[in-house]
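Researcher: Here's a chain I'd like modeled. Treat it as a single chain, no partners, no ligands.
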Amino acid sequence: MKWPKIKLRRVDAERALIACSAALVLLLSVRGGEREPYEEPLEEIPQGEVSVLAQTAGEDTQQTVVYYEDGDGYLVPVQREVARQDGIAKATLEMMVSSARNDMEAARLGLSPVVPEGTTFDLDISGGHARVDLGDKVLAAADAEQEENVRTAIVWALTEFDTVQDVSFLVGGQSRDTLPHGTPISGNFTRVGLNPEEPAQETFAGASEIQMYFPAQDGRLLVPVSRTVYSDDDVATAVFEFLRGPKADSGLETPIPDSVQLLGVSVDGGEVTINFSGDFAKIAEQSDGGMQAIRALMMTCTRYPGIRKVRLLVDGKPYDAPVADAPTFANVASEVENQFPEVMVIE
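Model: Modeled as a single isolated chain. Structure tokens:
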């Protein structure tokens, strides 16, 4: 028997939740008479949840970058607005731990928290170094892939902050060489490429690591991918590799038509100018008008130090791109939620 496809849109989910909430309120009012409603004291809510909840209270906010996992196991950076607070680095880590609220917030983006449920953090930052003491629940990671993503997500999240250059780990206050599935956690860790295309292997002299961004198949998010190349790590090489697209079995989309040719790349001050052949205009035929393709290209370019603006030409003439400003290197949570309202599609 073939089951029918089910589609649940956010609006339908919200209506269902509202209806259920109304019914619950009515039931409690009938059973409870004039009793005062119970509200959980703020101090009893885990700090990682306070950082998000406080936004609704009209408090001053700040940006932080949270690393989630998508359905294909890729780490995806998401820029979020949270309440301004002391200890924002620890609060950011706590937002990556699986819990009822964190799972819901991530699901709105089509993602999920990467750190096992119940994991705690004791964080000390001093002299550019962050020492993270993980609670024993981190040992419950399902496999080596999740362990690797947990370690990488924590390192990248912490090194977003200017006060952190490298990260070391303890578990339950004790040093460990590896996690249960063999992931190394001994020593100091700095940033390495996110989501490498190939398993870790020996590289030779002259190798560079290029980081690019490609749209996920559903078009909701841009996913960073690292590729090892034997050429200079510069913006021209990155654009060339970007045109090649992701690996065929990656689960990611090729944002630019195969017929497009790169005619030239130049850098002047903080502006990079990229000249494509005429078929580049075909990206406007995509369902979103080519917005994600342009965003992916801009994010690939602006990760290079000093590059602040991307100027596009088609056959030497200025191209009116659907995205004018270079975005941050991370997906912006509010934009993803507003542009892509569907939260779940079950095939």
